Amino acid sequence: MLKASGGDTGRALLATLLLAASACSENSDSGLGNGGAGSAGATSAAGATSAAGATSAAGATSAAGATSAAGANVGGNQALGGESGVDQAGTAGAAVGGASSATACAGLKLDRNVQLAGMATDRLTWNDAQCRPRSAALARVGGGYVRQYTYEVNGKPRVATGTGANGHKGFGYTVNHGDGPALLGQDMPGDYHPLFVGAHHAFYEYAFELAPGLEVTLHWFFATGRDHPLLAIHYDMTGMSAGLNADTRTPYGDIAWDGDENAAKTEVSGVGWGDRYRFTTTTAPLTMNSEWSYTEPNVVPYVLAWTDKTNAEMGIVQTQTQSQHDAGGYWFYPNWGKTSKTQIKDDGQIGNMPITWNWPYQINQYELCVEEPSCVDSPTGSHRLAWGANYGALGGADASGLYNAYGDDRKLKGHPYQSYSVFMVLGEHKRSPVLSAAHQVELAQAVSIAPSVGTLVVSLPSGVGTSPDVATDPPGYDARYATWNLVASENRVKFSVACASGVLSTPIVVISEFDKSGPPVVRIDGQIGRAGIDYFSSFDSAESKLWLTFAAGWSGTQQIEVE
User: Where are the beta strands (DSSP E) in 30-118?
Assistant: First the structure.
């Protein structure tokens, strides 16, 4: 067996949500303003295939329930906040509580070359679903990452800066382990710049060569009304032969997700992840002897860690389901459906938790007790968190370019491209933001859009770099950015949207071939929407695209018209 290298309210709520799941190179400062996308494009409709009236046959139901046991709203994604700089918001802003609220929030903005935590950064700020500020300071280097992240807790900012532990200075860079030395993208030379900054939507790109013939493109996407920034990850291996046999742990990092003031005294209470099943620790604090359950089926991949002491958690949530894009890796899958009491143990395992190299995602296992019986009950304060996918996900396991899915029951393609997108999720643990975000992705699978004017985009590039087109799944859904995509007819679209269950929070629609110079008119069920309250719009004149976020979300069946 190949070993991977590498460094009680919350638990009750998590258990409640699990039960609910069974129910219903060079710096370029160009690209600012409402100008066009960079060379890679913030999104590209070029070559996109559309079909009028296409609808989704997906019928997935909710996984986590609409409301937590503590009464916290489970739905919804969010966004960023910040200081003065390039501000294109005007008077528009984010709705609070949907269309019934007349309170507007400011749009997003970008400050360039801000010295922060000893590093030059470009800082994006935005308002989230509750009209509270968030910010993400992005390192000005090709192999970039979030150097510092802020959001509000009880009316006060929680500041999360890269800890520097073992040289890890932030979150969101590439890490890949395989047969040779680990490939670390942090601080690699390359290109970094904003692709598009609109009133309420912004993209920032990193591009660099990770190894000879291995090109990486990363897109960060921020939007008013979304709590969580999205990171789109693309590996291009057309310049190298298949058979690299590397895993992917991207995004990777170590950031003080419970607040800088708490980082030196953090005690991690527990961890969890989702692949085809949901794993969660059930005793606290986290040690290599923690008890756990891996019994609940799961739909959308995620990973998280939390602490009860300061009510904080951080996680990563994929924009697709496990069946759409495989996540998790290695050989722990014989324990699907089991608990710590009924598990099949690995040779050398010292406690209840899996042996360090066999966790499907890298979290903080290498900062726990590494196969040493004398410290099996010792906790950790590590903030390490990363993704996971099997060996061969990057480059294929051999010359065929294929690799085994987690579970070793099907073959997947790891060469010449590997692309996927995730949300970076930080929030209050009692509100279960990670499971909430996963629930939203699952709800999206049951959304169908039927246009009567304009057409639905049914094919888009698979990644944010050069890559082949793939079918949108569900029809119209762009997993790269978690958006819904249509093509206008004479600067107009009209469509019905049907949600099989729940409320899809702050959905984003991208309308291409839209070049109306004035502000759009948006009708929701026949009523004219209020800009900055019922919807948030950004117009990309260079790409002839209109970006629209619907503040109140979608539920049931609704009729929407944009012109």
Answer: 49-51, 86-87, 109-116
* pTM (predicted TM-score): 0.84
Nearest to 173 by CA among 165, 181, 184: 184
Give the H/E segment covering residue 440: helix 433-444
CA dist 140 and 27 (Å) reads: 7
**Amino acid, res. 310:** T
Q: Side chain identity at 437, as an amino acid letter?
A: A
Report whether 369 contacts 375 (CB < 8 A): yes
Q: Which residue is associated with the tokens 């990850």?
A: 233
In terms of residues, how long is the chain? 563
Residue 168 confidence (pLDDT)? 97
In 414-454, the DSSP E strands lie at 417-427, 447-453
Strand pairing report for 201-211 and 133-139: unpaired
Chain Cα centroid distance, residue 415: 23
Helix then strand then coil, % of the chain, to nearest 5: 10, 35, 55
Q: Which residues share a beta bridge with 451?
A: 495
CA angle 95, 542, 523 (to 5 degrees): 35
For 69-110, write each residue's pLDDT tens digit. Answer: 333 333 333 332 232 233 333 323 333 333 345 678 789 999
42 pLDDT above the threshold of 90: no
Tokens 């569900």, located at residue = 474
In 298-370, at which residue ranges do the beta strands (DSSP E only) sit? Answer: 302-307, 312-318, 338-339
Question: Which tokens in the block code for residue 454?
Answer: 């304009």
d(CA 392, CA 18): 31
Residues 188, 112, 126, 153: what is their CA dihedral angle, to the nearest 10 degrees? Answer: 70
Amino acid at 38: G
User: What are 9's two structure tokens?
Assistant: 């309210």
CB 205 within 8 A of CB 195: yes
Provide the 3-class DSSP secondary structure of residue 536: strand
Lowest-confidence region among 177-181, 297-301, 436-440? 177-181
* Prior bond of 194 cis (ω within 30°): no
- Phi and psi at 97, nearest 5°, equal 80, 15
Beta-bridged to residue 75, according to DSSP, are none
Please enumerate in sequence order all residues whose Cβ is within 8 A of that of 463, keeping only pairs 6 or more positions apart, or say none. 217, 232, 234, 236, 417, 419, 480
Q: Three-state SS string across 457-513, please?
A: EEEEECCCCCCCEEECCCCCEECCCCEEEEECCCCCEEEEEEECCCCECCCEEEEEC
Report in angstroms the alpha-carbon separations of 478 from 43, 424, 444: 10, 18, 11
How many other CB atoms are there within 10 angstroms of residue 272's CB atom? 26
DSSP one-letter string for 189-209? SEEEEEEEE-SSEEEEEEEEE
In this predicted model, which residue has the larger pLDDT, 451 or 72? 451
Write the burial class of residue 489 (CB in 10 Å: 0-12 exposed, 13-18 middle, 19+ buried).
middle
